[in-house]
Each structure stands twice: as C-alpha cells, then as structure tokens.
Amino acid sequence: MIRALVVDPDITVRVAIQNLFAEEQGFVVVGEARTGAEALELMVRKPDVVLLSAESLEHDGEPLLSMRTRHLLSVVVMADHLQGDLVELARAAGARQIVQRPVKVGKKAVLDEEEARKLLEALSFHARGNFPGASEHVDERHILAIGASTGGPLAVMKVLSMLPPGLGLSVLIVQHMASSLMAGYAEWLDRDSPLSVRLARGGERLVPGVALVAPGNYHLCLRNGQLQINTEPPVNSCRPSVDVLFESLATECPRAVVGVLLTGIGRDGARGLAALKDGGAHTIAQDEESSVVFGMPRATIELEAAHEVLPLDEITSAILKQFDIVG
User: Fold this and answer.
1) What's the pLDDT tens digit per position in 214-263?
2) What are residue 309's DSSP bridge partners?
3) Homologous superfamily of the 139-322 domain (CATH)
4) Are 32 and 14 in contact (CB under 8 A)?
5) Are 123 and 70 in contact (CB under 8 A)?
6) 53, 56, 74, 149: which is the annotated catalytic residue?
C-alpha cells in the first residue's frame, strides 16, 4: 500500500486525488494539507511519497527541501502546465517528477484517464520502499560533502574537475586554509571546475549544481534544511571544522550524503565521517600514497569510518557510482 501525503490549497484538487485513490487498489491518502508547512506537521503519519502542487511550492517552497533531505521522501509535483517558470522552480527544488494537476471543471477538479495513469505511475515509481533495496537506493543521494586540509586545494580541484557538467548535486566543502585566502580559493574552484562555487553566507538552501565553501574562521553546518555559519569555538583546533559539517549532515540527512575526507593533518573529519557512515551515508577516504599528509584519512581508517579508501584519481568515479552516474 502506497501512503501519499497530498498538498494543494484547492480542496477540489485534494478531493479529486482522494476519488482517484478510491478507484485504485494499493493507494491511500494518509494526510491532506493546504501548504508545505502544514504538510511537515503530518510527517508523523509516515507517508511514502508527497504529491504537492506547484502553486504550494511557489508560495511555500521551503518545506520541500526538508521533505527531501530530513525526511528522505520523494516529492512529485502537480502543475497546471507542464512547462514554464513554476515547473523549472519545482525541478530546481528537487521534485522527482512533474505531473498534470487535476483540472477545474465547474465545481470539481478532474483528470482524464491518461493523466490519472501517469500520476499513479509516478507515485508508484517514487514511493519510498516500493522498489527493491529502497533503503540503499542511490537515487536518494544528492549531497556531496568534502573535507580537506594540507594538500586539499589541489585534491578538491581534482575531484570537482572530473565531475560531468550539469550534474545536479549540492556540494559542501570545508577546507582548512587561512581566512584571507578563502575568497580566492572559491573563485579558483568556480573558474576551473564545472560547478558554480562560492563561499557560503548562511541562510541558504542547498541548490543542485552549486558548491558552497565554508568561509574562513566560520563553521558550516546544516540545520532544519538550511545552511548556517557560526563562530562557535574551534573543534579539533579548527574553525571551520569538517566534523561540524559532517556531524550536522549525519543528524539531518545522512542517507542523502556521500562524504569524502581528503588529505590533511590531524583528525578533523574522522568522527564526523563515522557518524555519516553509521547514519547510512556512503563514505570515502583518500589513500596514503596519494595524500600529501595522511593524518585525517588515517584517523578515518582507524575508526573504520570509510566504506572505501581510494587513490585521488579514483575518488570521483566512486562518487558518481553512488549517484548512479557513469563517470
């Protein structure tokens, strides 16, 4: 039985979905909401998939990210028109599929037989737990988190430069480096890698295709689906700290993450990578031969926190496999 949460401000649309489900075996509406904020309150009903109108997304889009990252739910968006700005907004926000919204006819909302079939197929395909090995399915992963220290700038560039253009991943980077050099570092990555790269400002949402770098002397973390920067005390004598980022992701959305710890001195990032692994993330550490300094990766191996220990040249292809992409 596929348990769907339906989010639409128009009650006639919600009724149309209820009626459609009543005619089909294997589907049930476990909750109805007018807005994304209301929908988040209904997560306790444990839906398998969210069916959300583009209109709700336009006026109240913030909860969509939380549904995807914190609750690990696929979101199927209903739109009045299958092209246009709202559809692009939905795709950019991470909607798994766009389907036709029920059309108002008089006092009712209806779907023709073909569009109803497409909607049901979309819900069936994207519902959590409705495909083999769902708990490990790579389609849930959409965040790449990288930590590095000594030798890291070139290593990070190597990893990013081998990513294919147009890859819809959100990338977060913590690099130990003097504060005065961080802006130039982000500009260099932006210029010479296929991603759009900039320093995190705090208050952002994750954006596919954009890499955000922790600014100098600030921790970077994810809280309630939103990136934050802060000047809390150093961790492992580091600010920014890789552990702070990794542990926040382990709390928020570990199964959405591929975590990578590259060359560097000390132990920063090892504990956080272990937390990510324990939460269901896929974790990778750089091997000794290709590391400038093997401190951080070695600490990771000692904690058995890495699924894979790889040469730098092989890390990007291993990342892409976790996102079901052939590198």
Assistant:
1) 999 999 999 877 899 999 999 999 999 999 999 999 988 898 999 999 99
2) 285
3) Methylesterase CheB, C-terminal domain (3.40.50.180)
4) yes
5) no
6) 149
Cα distances from 173 to residues 34, 236, 270, in angstroms, run: 36, 17, 15
| DSSP bridge pairs for 4 | 29, 49
**Taking a C-beta distance cutoff of 8 angstroms, is the pair 285, 258 a contact?**
no
What is the pTM assigned to this prediction?
A: 0.61
What pairs with residue 143 in β-bridges?
Answer: 170, 257
Q: Print the SS3 string covering the chain.
A: CEEEEEECCCHHHHHHHHHHHHCCCCEEEEEEECCHHHHHHCHHHCCCEEEEEHHHHHHCCHHHHHHHHCCCCEEEEEECCCCCHHHHHHHHCCCCEEEECCEEECCEEECCHHHHHHHHHHHHHHCCCCCCCHHHCHHHCCEEEEEECCCHHHHHHHHHHCCCCCCCCEEEEEECCCHHHHHHHHHHHHHHCCCEEEECCCCCCCCCCEEEECCCCCEEEEECCEEEEECCCCECCECCCHHHHHHHHHHHCHHHEEEEECCCCCCCCHHHHHHHHHHCCEEEEECCCCCCCCHHHHHHHHCCCCCEEECHHHHHHHHHHHCCCCC
Judge whether residue 309 has pLDDT over 80: yes
Marked catalytic residue, from 71, 126, 142, 176: 176
Q: What's the confidence (pLDDT) of residue 129? A: 45
Annotated catalytic residue 149? yes
Domain ranges of the chain: 2-136, 139-322
Q: What is the average pLDDT across 49-67?
A: 71
Catalytic residue among 8, 48, 60, 268: 268
Q: What is the CATH number of domain 2-136?
A: 3.40.50.2300
CB neighbourhood size of 131 (10 A): 12
Least confident of 144-148, 185-189, 239-243, 253-257: 253-257
pLDDT digits (tens, 9 = 90+) for 164-173: 876 778 999 9
Gap between the Cα atoms of 149 and 292, Å rounded? 10
